[in-house]
Amino acid sequence: NAGVTQTPKFRILKIGQSMTLQCTQDMNHNYMYWYRQDPGMGLKLIYYSVGAGITDKGEVPNGYNVSRSTTEDFPLRLELAAPSQTSVYFCASSYDGYRTQHFGDGTRLSIL
Amino acid sequence: QKEVEQNSGPLSVPEGAIASLNCTYSDRGSQSFFWYRQYSGKSPELIMFIYSNGDKEDGRFTAQLNKASQYVSLLIRDSQPSDSATYLCAVNNSGNQFYFGTGTSLTVIP
């Protein structure tokens, strides 16, 4: 019963590098979300998806891109990494976008 | 104005006491309300959800919702040291998005 799986758990990037954070869910949920959480803060929505092929911006989308080619996968792409993107990233899924969200364990990303 | 506001604390209560956590939200169209617990370095885990005005009880936890006042709270009875964590309030608006408060840090003193 995996739920929401995120990889990698930790990563250090240099300024200007790019990378993809992976997120997979096995609950057949239509809705998926990417959040970032800065120290001592709540979660800020980066992007979300209501189904395969459909994505939309959240509160803080700048510097990020997403795609949703399958129901299971929702990768987050960072292009030209900047120190301001140092954060913990959480992926979540929800059955209908209204009820409970299920979270992955997070990816701790540092950009130096 | 922030979508969801919480008192950041820290809130300290003695073991066995009642902890009261509060949250206000700005979007009157919000439909569902959640309390998550987050231990340091971990992901949020759902404690309670509530959709209708009034109280909802689950074990030692009670969520209270007042849509007219745009207010949702969480009471933790018989607080235990293991309840020490950050509690996040989340609100779902009518547009499939969830908005989170900054969290309230709770410490239960043995």
Short overview:
With 112 residues, chain A is an all-beta fold.
User: Main beta sheet of chain A: strand number and arrangement?
Assistant: 7 strands, mixed
Dominant shape of chain A: globular
Please state the overall shape of chain B, judged from the principal axes of the Cα atoms: globular
Helix content of chain B: under 10%
What does this molecule look like?
- The complex is a heterodimer of chains A (112) and B (110).
- Chain A is an all-beta fold and 112 residues long.
- Chain A is built from no helices and 11 strands.
- Chain A has strands at residues 4-7, 10-13, 19-25, 31-37, 43-51, 54-57, 64-66, 76-78, 87-94, 101-103, 107-111.
- In chain A, a hairpin with a 5-residue loop joins strand 4 (31-37) and strand 5.
- Chain A is globular, with a radius of gyration of 13 Å.
- The mean pLDDT of chain A is 94.
- Chain B has strands at residues 4-6, 11-14, 19-25, 32-38, 45-50, 54-58, 61-66, 71-76, 85-92, 98-100, 104-109.
- In chain B, the strands form 2 sheets. In chain B, strands 2, 4, 5, 9, 10 and 11 form a 6-stranded mixed beta sheet that branches. Chain B has a 5-stranded antiparallel beta sheet with strand order 1-3-8-7-6, with no helix packed on it.
- The relative contact order of chain B is 0.35.
- The model of chain B has no long low-confidence stretch (mean pLDDT 92).
- The interface between A and B is medium-sized, with 22 and 23 residues.
